[in-house]
């Protein structure tokens, strides 16, 4: 069923009793051309673009939980393409362009809201760094505006401009950045893929990858053996565990990242604002809650919950930036497991097995990359060659010394 | 994550006193070859379960520890002083 104003009206007149489920609940077939392990944003987007753009429709997405239960429903919903490095920037800009047309493309309201992303800077050195980043963005055809203190003050008068330690000097603004309703992204891609024949199989955990003579033959799952022509891994925080089933050791550690939402407030923050002197980013949802987060907790974790010390740290950073947050009550917090790579950049590549493909290492930047990640992974799965904006995300870049380290932290995942 | 971390010198101490370095791996010898060094610097087992990590008791005794911790339940099984435990390895 195509969603439109007319379908809304007709279904409304019928008492909303004739809506069909957005996707089927199929039992797995014995064999698929492509199986994707992981029904998160990236896995669903991959299936969607495989079916829509590359004509591969005999596809299954295997999800151990339910659609939307993982990181795609556990992030702070920010989209942006304000990257510095050559290998990253065109890819994230492709993602931004796909976000811009996404709702029309998959016929689902994902509430894409380009309300701007502002990164504050607090020192001359940081201004230089942001100027450089803004220039790099512009050279790649991405919008970037460097705002001075007065311009930021006009936008956001309630920030702590004269903080003794971290006075706000200005900010780098990407107007096309913003937020997207994350659940709707999962649902929209799931529905779009399902409509084109993809089987989305929920509550189906992969327990073993069967391979013979360097070729994957299929996967053992909690719903039995399923054969496949090609296997794509998009298991986010569990990437290492799934890759291990194929004898692959990854340059990845799993870490927990927390996010928070406050009680509903009147309109307060229009876009996304990030603190340059600590790790804190905040936006306001359409319901009025402030959605915010900070840094990862800093230790390897597979538990989708974080530590109180990090909660306190995030709250302190937030209050240093916006003093009036001190009286805001936090309603909920949650944790997601990030596949933190050794250089802070992702991997979309082939592996040592002929028909096994890997999509991993998104660190805590995976949500904004969802459309491009799906598109590029689908390109790789369908054609066997990397999409032109994703040529730097190779698995062997660590061996070849071609790291993509945006932050310059080195091989220390808990610092990325 | 447990709020209290056992330190062999200071007893149970708040987690915030510690700095976490990451996987406690055996450092290869200088002539071990590129592959061994690649593995050591970049590749990780990243298990769901027991894991040995280097922790520094930054705001306490300032000793480097190896903390054995479960990455799914966050229970800490054991901690030991890196340098001292190596000494006892040499002198049985």
From TrEMBL, chain A:
It is an enzyme of class 1 (oxidoreductase). Its cofactor is FMN; FAD. It holds the Pfam family DAO. InterPro entries: FAD-dep_OxRdtase, FAD/NAD-bd_sf, Rhodanese-like_dom, SoxB. Its main location: cytoplasm. The keyword Isomerase does not apply. It comes from the Bacteria. One of its GO terms (biological process) is tetrahydrofolate metabolic process. Residues 34-78 form the Rhodanese domain. Its EC number is 1.5.3.24. GO terms for molecular function: nucleotide binding; sarcosine oxidase activity. It catalyses: sarcosine + (6S)-5,6,7,8-tetrahydrofolate + O2 = (6R)-5,10-methylene-5,6,7,8-tetrahydrofolate + glycine + H2O2; sarcosine + O2 + H2O = formaldehyde + glycine + H2O2. It is found in: Cytoplasm. One of its GO terms (cellular component) is cytoplasm. Keywords: Cytoplasm, FAD, Flavoprotein, FMN, Nucleotide-binding, Oxidoreductase. The keyword Oxidoreductase applies. Belongs to the SoxB family. This is Sarcosine oxidase subunit beta.
UniProtKB/TrEMBL annotation, chain B:
InterPro entries: SoxD, SoxD_sf. It comes from Neorhizobium lilium. Signal peptide: none annotated. This is Sarcosine oxidase subunit delta. One of its GO terms (molecular function) is sarcosine oxidase activity. It comes from the Bacteria. One of its GO terms (biological process) is tetrahydrofolate metabolic process.
